[in-house]
Amino acid sequence: MRHIIGCLAIIENDRGEILLTQRNEPGFGQWHKRWNIPGGGLETNETPKQATLREIEEELGVEIEVIDEYPIVAKGIPLGNIGESSVILVAYIARITKGKPNKESPETLDWKWIKPQEIDYSDCMPSTTDLVTAYLAKK
Question: Domain range holding 84?
């Protein structure tokens, strides 16, 4: 069994909103155009925190700082033809320190700030519900 670690950032702003990104992955069928917490996969010799910082800069063109060193951990879903696998998501609460989010990454169709209570989870990746619920419990 293959184990995959997804490293994410629940990026918050001063208005009580978090940032969601819309996936641009037509090869993943039902998950294409779904909203989710931004981030990506852990690479060799990276810590989850390092991977999160790198992925957010790659996907959104911004630098972030982690404001809670204790991440939220949730179960994810395997995407694509990767065989039998388990996915663990590690999500840090963070804030933008430099730049403004953009859509220049081929992985991101769009992004938006939204109050967690206003999220339509029917249009999100399944793990978004668990991650946002855990985030609100920490607040």
Answer: 2-138
Which CATH number do you get for residue 65?
Answer: 3.90.79.10
User: DSSP letters of 120-137?
Assistant: -GGGB-HHHHHHHHHHHH
Q: Residue 22: what pLDDT?
A: 96
pTM above 0.90, yes or no: yes
Q: How many Cβ atoms sit within 10 Å of the Cβ of residue 24?
A: 15
Total count of domains within the chain: 1
SS3 28: helix
As a whole number of Å, the CA-based R_g of the chain is: 14
Which residues, listed in sequence order, are joined to residue 64 by a DSSP beta bridge? 96
